[in-house]
Specification:
This protein has helices at 81-84, 87-94, 102-122, 130-138, 218-234, 248-259, 271-279, 288-297, 304-310, 327-335, 354-361, 388-397, 414-423, 441-444; strands spanning 24-30, 39-44, 49-52, 73-75, 97-100, 140-142, 149-151, 154-160, 168-173, 178-181, 203-207, 239-242, 265-268, 299-300, 315-318, 342-345, 363-366, 369-372, 376-379, 402-406, 427-429, 436-438. It is of the alpha/beta class. Bound molecules: zinc ion (2 copies). One zinc ion (ZN) is lined by residues 36, 80, 82-83, 184, 407.
């Protein structure tokens, strides 16, 4: 049932052995026609080679990109596991250097330890072990936003991507073409970050997570959310908000602080440490003072007695965002007994997760046993990925001759997005994992 990539060197890679003959070639080891699991190799005829991201998809079971070829340099766009989860393997096997922002580098350590922990709890193999984390940490080369560096005859620059603090787009200038790779991005502001700004480019790689789907009006969504929280508190209940540690937890706390400052809000999980790191890098934040204020306002759960006290709070914000372990489960095991309580999800619940099971069957696995959770729940869309319209507008504003849609569901999301982009006059590529393609008109015409 499970196709596991074994990473025996030289055996499992989809990367071609021949060097590109002319121009700039790209090859998705993963993340071409799927969401997450990203690894894209760029190479030219001088055999100048760069890897963009090397993640895994934390699905059940996880998916891994195909084995990376020998590569000296990798750019890591941001600190989500679907973009950096396999970097320790890369660094220990190929001595690859990791280029990214200071905050991404700082958060990476926690993400890797957490990834390692989750894989051992869930019994999934991981191609790297804890010692490789140290190798990867030594491999970081830090770059500020908008400060270029060179790799052979390429010029590389990180640009703000929105999405989460520290997240970058890669602006890659080659003698033949200028290429902009969005990473995970959003052009809309969030409480934590300023939206990504378009820039002129020849080729745009854009994440198509939300192709064909429009986000709800954010102000209306926030109002609906705020009213719901207040309603539960008014009837004497506690709201549990499961939230990812890296980005979502802080966004939610900042919104609660802004709109419901009279409430008693407790925060638990890895998001506490990540907030501290974000505050240490104010250059990545839209409004550093607002994060600091929200953070000193909320109560951070740091002990067993704190956790018991949090059960009396108005709101608990806690990992994991999809009810896959984390303190959320501990809270729900107690909150489930009082129907006045409620669960407010802040994002999509992937299949085979606790959150999805709760939404579809009303139960959750607690200590390995399916347990009834007879609580009211609802889902709010606080995504920080660009929606369909934002993607199309961004590509137009970048004046991109060609657009490569990656990090996308090839069946539901990509076709409507490709159609909208083609209608606007862009040449669209739909990459498939394991198949190399060339950038530039003379090559794409022949495909
Ligand atoms: Zn992603
Ligand atoms: Zn991300």
């Amino acid at each position: 049932m499970v196709t596991m990539v074994l990473y025996s060197a030289g055996r499992t890679t989809s990367y071609p052995e021949d060097a590109p003959k002319k121009g700039l070639r790209y090859h998705c080891l993963g993340g071409g026609d799927e969401v997450g699991n990203v690894g894209i190799v760029f190479e030219n005829e001088r055999q100048n080679r760069l890897l963009l991201d090397y993640g895994l998809a934390p699905t059940h079971p996880p998916r891994y990109p195909s084995e990376a070829p020998q590569v000296k340099d990798a750019v890591i766009t941001h600190s989500h596991v679907d973009h950096l989860g396999m970097a320790p393997w890369l660094c220990s096997n190929h001595r690859t250097l990791l280029h990214g922002t200071a905050l991404t580098a700082q958060i990476s350590e926690m993400m890797w330890y957490d990834c390692h922990k989750v894989s051992s709890i869930e019994g999934y193999p991981l191609a790297w072990d804890k010692r490789d984390i140290d190798t990867a940490l030594d491999a970081w080369r830090i770059h500020d936003f908008n400060e270029s560096w060179n790799q052979d005859d390429w010029k590389l620059t990180l640009r703000k991507a929105g999405h989460i603090p520290g997240a970058a787009m890669l602006d890659l200038e080659t003698p033949q073409r200028r290429v902009l790779i969005s990473g995970d991005f959003d052009t809309r502001d969030s409480p934590l970050t300023t939206g990504a700004k378009p820039q002129k480019t020849d080729t745009l790689f854009v994440e198509g997570t939300y192709g064909g789907r429009e986000h709800p009006n954010l102000d209306e969504e926030i109002q609906r959310f705020v009213e719901h929280v207040q309603r539960v508190v008014d009837r004497g209940g506690t709201v549990l908000i499961p939230a990812f540690a890296n980005g979502r937890t802080q966004d939610v706390v900042m919104r609660l602080h802004k709109y419901l400052p009279h409430l008693n809000v407790h925060v638990d999980g890895m998001g506490k440490r990540i907030a501290k790191m974000q505050m240490n890098h104010p250059e990545t934040l839209r409004d550093p003072a607002a994060l600091r204020a929200a953070w000193s306002w909320c109560k951070r759960v740091s002990s067993k007695s704190d956790r018991k006290r949090a059960l009396e709070a108005d709101v608990i914000v806690s990992t994991s965002g999809m009810l896959q372990g984390g303190p959320s489960i501990w809270y729900l095991n107690r909150l489930r007994h009082d129907p006045k309580n409620a669960i407010l999800f802040t994002g999509y619940q992937a299949k085979a997760t606790g959150g999805r099971q709760l939404q579809s069957e009303g139960t959750l696995k607690i200590f390995g046993k399916d347990t009834e959770i007879p609580l009211e729940w609802d889902t709010y869309s606080f995504s920080t990925h660009a929606g369909h319209k934002e993607i199309v507008d961004f590509a137009a504003a970048c004046e991109a001759e060609e657009v490569i849609i990656y990090h996308t569901d090839p069946v539901h999301a990509r076709p409507p997005l490709a159609a909208a982009l083609e209608k606007n006059g862009h040449i669209v590529h739909n990459p498939v994992n394991g198949i190399s393609e060339y950038l530039g008109e003379e090559f794409s015409r022949s495909h």
